[in-house]
Amino acid sequence: MTSPAKTSSVRNRHEFTDALKRGLYEAIFRRRDIREFTPEPIRDGALARVLIAAHHAASVGFSQPWDFIVVRSVEARRRVKEIFEQERAKNAAQFTGARREKFLSLKLEGILEAPINLIVTCTPERFGPAVLGKTSIRDVEIYSACLAVENLWLTARAEGLGVGWVSIMRNDALAEIFGIPDSAIPVAYLCVGYVREFPDRPVLASAQWAERLPPRSLIHFDTWSKEGTPDEPLIEKIEDPSIWLSIFPEDSPDKSPSRR
Amino acid sequence: MTSPAKTSSVRNRHEFTDALKRGLYEAIFRRRDIREFTPEPIRDGALARVLIAAHHAASVGFSQPWDFIVVRSVEARRRVKEIFEQERAKNAAQFTGARREKFLSLKLEGILEAPINLIVTCTPERFGPAVLGKTSIRDVEIYSACLAVENLWLTARAEGLGVGWVSIMRNDALAEIFGIPDSAIPVAYLCVGYVREFPDRPVLASAQWAERLPPRSLIHFDTWSKEGTPDEPLIEKIEDPSIWLSIFPEDSPDKSPSRR
Q1: Which residues of chain A neighbour B67 with C-beta distances below 8 Å?
Q2: Under an 8 A CB cutoff, do A210 and B61 touch?
Q3: Residues of B in contact with A187 (CB under 8 A)
Q4: Are strands A116-122 and A66-71 parallel, antiparallel or unpaired?
Q5: How remote is the C-alpha of B96 from its chain's centroid?
Q6: Confidence band (pLDDT; 50, 70, 90) for B5?
Q7: How many CB atoms lie within 10 A of CB B260?
Q8: What is the pLDDT of residues B143-152, one digit of tens each?
Q9: Angle A168-A198-A86 (CA atoms, 0-180°, nearest 5)?
């Protein structure tokens, strides 16, 4: 006979030790979208590990649809920056008043400051049109390429490297500047480099552009509708501060952990 | 004066310790697409951490476009399984001969065996049509939802949980079964649960469906074309077995690390 408390502390045999879990959680909760870089060159070993990790993401039918363009050319990046500026003006025009002022005050890229930029593309038909796992959902290979981006981003954080995704961009311009063929879709334009600081909170949270949404608003059970459903133990668990102590045991239960 | 060897061992101050890096790398290289589950229920603490980690992915304009539907209903999953079977037949029809035989021999989901399924959706216009970071690239919020999937997948691995992405699916059917509104796009249908084994290699590699591509074929410098470019030190670094020893120091340099 074991007590419930004891039972719940029994580890699954595939579960990582707390020390190993911590490494993953540090990467996930300390990852930031970075727009300020130091000019320090990236060590080849760090970049090698980042790219290998990206290449080990899941992909539909093991299609590995990604390519990576390492962009060091300042001339190419100047052209990219021009496109960014044109698109940024369009983006600003979508907002009005104080919101637009705030938008215009934000630094949204580090294209020229970062020692390198990285383009992640997706070639859906690398092995032909038939893909194991692809039937009615059109963009499954692009989803795979995004998984690679997250591996890249988390690994970069562990290597001390910041990553900033510049989504204010035009894919036709990227294709022209870098000679990307029609068979490949640019998915992510990333600035990568060492940083002075990894901010404690996302920049857009500190700037009061948006707030982190409460998890309970995003979690549904068996159906989208939340009408008439009682509180689930899972939601209580997520909202209990002790869940953060299970990730970062040194956090004080009196204050919200900074990673929120 | 420092020797080059000494200089290269100086850590960037934001770089993780080797012990912390190891936790992230274990998750990345030991993650697998899982189709066989044990019926053991998932502990609320583990699932809470997995969902919190997913919710801390990057998102364009901090739009947090994801929702998570925890599916426990066997009835709903039976309906999903029917759709899967119809789509699987379509997928099989895309292959011929021995390739089709192999396709039909593969187990591609654990919809009913897994204790839960998880649906990750994307609501692009959660805060209205204007999104900071969105101009000419249409699906940026979906890319964000995919980043959340990878956080979820890696965290699940650390918690001892397997995840299998069922992309052989129809989104209109999912919308109907789970009452997902038109404003939300189903992005990932996942089976989640404890497993008997995390295979050493991807199932589709062991089944000789596909091989891991050589990294050099996927990495470009400044332009897509690889014509006339000499070998880059980065490529040499990636292909040198010592890069694997920097991730998993106990691996023998005489054999390919199993994570490849």
Answers
A1: 218-220, 224
A2: yes
A3: 143
A4: antiparallel
A5: 28
A6: very low
A7: 14
A8: 999 999 999 9
A9: 15
pLDDT band at A65 (very low <50, low <70, confident <90, very high): very high
Across-strand partners of A188?
Answer: A120
In A159-241, alpha helices (H): 171-178, 203-206, 233-239
| pLDDT of A218 strictly over 50 | yes
Q: List, for residues B45-75, the tens digit of each pLDDT value.
A: 999 999 999 999 999 999 999 999 999 999 9
What ipTM describes this predicted complex? 0.95
- Provide the mean pLDDT of chain A: 93
Cβ-Cβ contacts under 8 Å, B90 against chain A: 135-136
Tell me whether residues A23 and B28 touch, CB distance under 8 A: no
Least CB-CB distance to A149: which of B21, B147, B154? B147
pLDDT, mean of residues B237-246: 94
Residue A224: exposed, middle, or buried by beta-carbon count in 10 A (0-12, 13-18, 19+)?
middle
Token pair of A102, please?
Answer: 């705030």
> DSSP class of residue B33?
B
- Which of A194, A198, A247 comes nearest B49 by C-beta? A247
- Pull the structure tokens for residue B33: 């697409």
Q: What angle do CA B191, B193, B196 make, to 5 degrees?
A: 120
